[in-house]
Amino acid sequence: MSLPDLYAVLGNPVQHSRSPRIHQLFAQQCGQALRYERRLVAPGGFDAALAALRADGGRGCNVTVPCKFDAARAASRLSPRAELAQAANTLGWDEQGLLWGDNTDGIGLVRDLARLLGRDGEAQALRGMRVLLLGAGGAASGVLGSLIEAGAAQLEVWNRSHERAEGLVRRHAQLAARHGAALGASRAPARGHDLVIHATAGSLGGELPQLPPGVLHAGALAYDMMYAARPTPFVLLARAAGARAHDGLGMLVEQAAESFALWRATRVRTEPVLRQLRAELDAEAAAS
Fold it and tell me: How many CB atoms lie within 10 A of CB 125?
């Protein structure tokens, strides 16, 4: 009797990841059987971790920090969105045994933002909005293209390394021009944005970017791409400034659904899974 197909999430840290639970719920929803594991990647050891997963019969994996750029380099072929991002969060082996890479972070974020904003579909979820993206690493790289395609009128990228922010902007300049979006990198975050997205790795350690007063303000929507049982420091900071703030649990579920569809050729309903996960996180917070 053969074992169910094996998938995993690769990254460091990875013990906090809800991905195994999410894919378990997806599989139950559509009557499929699979195994999904957390696999810690040692510093500099992404290729070895990927080879070990394949040797164990792995069919594919999700990739989290700090390995998304490594994942893109490892793939034999990339989707257009992963090619643009130069980062991949979803890998799989095709029938010939070749490794393909995709990036579902952007579409996951936009779908969750559309839900929060009460807008139908992702095509124009951010129509006319002024967006500030904090960060220029693998997380930010994976979502900028989708934010442009979602109709944002203006996008500003800020990162502690200005050169890195400029490089990300240059790579997306043609896409922004095609969509009529004003795109730039700033040395200091400006005020007046409708949407502020926190995509820096600092959330993992509870660190906050140094934001000038007024960047987070009443009437703005603030979004932390990280999530936790309790509100993240960025969510707390945004709420204290009067902004409407949310964590990235919805994005996690939506990007996972896109990965599941790529691997299993099956679309799942995300709403019940998001409700279940939120209830589980709330229970953990209450018990701690």
Answer: 25
Say whether pTM exceeds 0.70. Answer: yes
Helix locations, 100-248, DSSP H: 105-117, 138-149, 162-171, 173-178, 233-240
Query: Helices (DSSP H) in 33-117: which residue ranges?
Result: 46-55, 68-74, 80-85, 105-117
Which contiguous run of DSSP H or E holds residue 287?
helix 271-287
- Average model confidence (pLDDT) across the chain: 95
Three-state DSSP class for residue 68: helix
Q: Where in the chain is CATH 3.40.50.720?
A: 106-249
Catalytic option among 68, 81, 172, 198: 68
Residues of the chain with CATH 3.40.50.10860: 5-103
Structural fold of domain 106-249: Rossmann fold (3.40.50)
Known active-site residue 68: yes
Indicate the CATH number for domain 5-103.
3.40.50.10860
Beta bridge mates, 10: 39, 63
Q: Would the pLDDT of 3 be above 90? A: no
